[in-house]
């Protein structure tokens, strides 16, 4: 009996044995495949991008001031806070959950940050003894809960909040921002515990906390009160300052070059291993397009955009741009390149299947609320900086609605399992353009709310129809 010779132990044979599709595509085939996916309901962020382009054209035609350099830079800064809150909400929405408390939660973080600054680090004197001890106890409880759920980052940040509050550390802009993030993470631990461990619906929990945090903000600041932070150059410049011209070009090189290195490195690595990847011309086109956009944007923002150029010089990329880019890169890396991110998508797609696969579903559900709350705290820092103060309306009004709307409009599904951090950025730009453009046209708040609501309704409709189309086509 003749024995069949063993196959060499090579990557190619392993791929063949397991039936991995390594068929390469031409550029034309890849483009046809993309349009086939669109017809199949996999729209991604395309509707939001097309809508953004249409809105820019409309407002450009209606207002001479819309596409000026000064207004464009202000537009980014105005929408940055809500955009950052939306980035955190993407994590919650990926599980099919909702966090209605993100807006007022961010207001709590902003008020604690501002109180610590204006009271010279004395939160006890600012809050009063009873409120202060309740606050510290809440932070301790959050730390214990995080340890029990093994959410180590939440536990560490909660402990830092307790230490800073009890020791009364001297005011420092960087410490104030750290305190805001720590308070946000601690609140996220408590919210996640009630949703994942107690089993309460996230809608009910976060709706109750939405109302609760409104009362807490009023308790901290007082009716008609305000905490000013303009006297802190660091806090005020977060949303109002700009990089130097040299720093702006350095950011351009780092951003465009980093994107090129990551994308091209992954592409050629997959080619060497015989794995499926996009055609090289398409990958090169993406890299070149990003580089061109980065260079043109930096060149424009490096010009003096002051309304009175003879008196004041305003030039450079706003500080909020690198802040958003860093959060975008980190958030995308976590979702796409880490086990934690894969577990989020798995739980969002099918929680029961994820549980049977050994994923700690309860921990994942709790942790996304910690991420959302921490992002809300960062958003609070940005929008408080833009206003230069914190008042009882911080995080209220339309902050939450615009943040959720930004994530959904950008392409994140309300049904879970589908979404990216980039969707929050795209959707945030759409809402910022709507608000800014209608403001330049001197439209009342009623019109702004109506148009924003219709845009959100349209995005939800597209999401529902695309899911139905995807289910039909398989």
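-> sequence recovered:
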């Amino acid at each position: 009996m003749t024995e069949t010779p063993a196959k060499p132990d090579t990557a190619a044979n392993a791929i063949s044995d397991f039936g991995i599709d390594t068929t390469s595509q031409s550029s034309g085939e890849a483009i046809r495949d993309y349009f086939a996916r669109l017809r199949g309901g996999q729209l991604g962020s395309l509707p939001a991008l097309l809508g953004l382009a249409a809105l820019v054209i409309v407002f450009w035609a209606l207002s001479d001031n819309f596409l000026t350099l000064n207004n464009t830079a202000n537009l980014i800064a105005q929408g940055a806070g809500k955009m950052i809150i939306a980035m955190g909400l993407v994590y919650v929405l990926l599980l099919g959950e909702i966090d209605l408390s993100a807006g007022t939660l961010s207001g709590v973080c902003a008020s604690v940050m501002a109180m610590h600054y204006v009271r010279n680090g004395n939160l006890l004197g600012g809050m009063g003894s009873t409120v202060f001890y309740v606050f510290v106890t809440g932070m301790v409880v959050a730390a214990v809960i995080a340890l029990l759920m093994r959410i180590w980052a939440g536990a560490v940040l909660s402990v830092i909040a307790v230490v800073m509050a009890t020791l009364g550390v001297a005011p420092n802009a960087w410490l104030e921002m750290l305190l805001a993030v720590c308070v946000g993470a601690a609140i996220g631990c408590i919210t996640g515990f009630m949703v994942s461990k107690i089993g309460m619906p996230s809608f009910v929990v976060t709706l109750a906390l939405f109302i609760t945090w409104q009362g807490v903000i009023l308790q901290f600041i007082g009716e008609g009160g305000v905490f000013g932070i303009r006297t802190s150059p660091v806090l005020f410049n977060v949303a109002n300052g700009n990089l130097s011209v040299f720093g702006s070009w350095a950011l351009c090189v780092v951003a465009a070059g980093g994107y090129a290195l990551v994308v091209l490195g992954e592409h050629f690595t997959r080619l060497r291993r015989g794995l499926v990847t996009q055609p090289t011309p398409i990958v090169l086109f993406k890299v070149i397009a990003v580089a061109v956009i980065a260079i043109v944007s930096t060149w424009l923002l490096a010009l003096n955009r002051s309304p009175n150029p003879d008196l004041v010089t305003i030039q450079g990329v706003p500080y909020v741009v690198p802040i958003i880019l860093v959060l975008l890169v980190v958030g995308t890396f976590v979702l796409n390149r880490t086990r934690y991110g894969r577990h989020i998508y798995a739980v969002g797609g099918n929680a029961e299947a994820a549980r049977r696969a050994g994923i700690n579903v309860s921990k994942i559900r709790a942790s996304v609320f910690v991420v959302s709350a921490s992002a809300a705290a960062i958003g609070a820092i940005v929008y408080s900086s833009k206003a230069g103060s914190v008042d009882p309306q911080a995080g209220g009004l339309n902050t939450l609605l615009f943040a959720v709307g930004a994530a959904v409009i950008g392409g994140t599904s309300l049904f879970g399992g589908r979404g990216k951090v980039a969707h929050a950025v795209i959707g945030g730009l759409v809402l910022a353009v709507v608000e800014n453009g209608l403001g330049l046209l001197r439209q009342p708040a009623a019109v702004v709310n109506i148009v924003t609501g219709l845009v959100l309704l349209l995005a939800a409709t597209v999401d529902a129809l695309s899911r139905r189309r995807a289910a039909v086509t398989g």
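Residues 20 and 275 are 8 Å apart (CA to CA).
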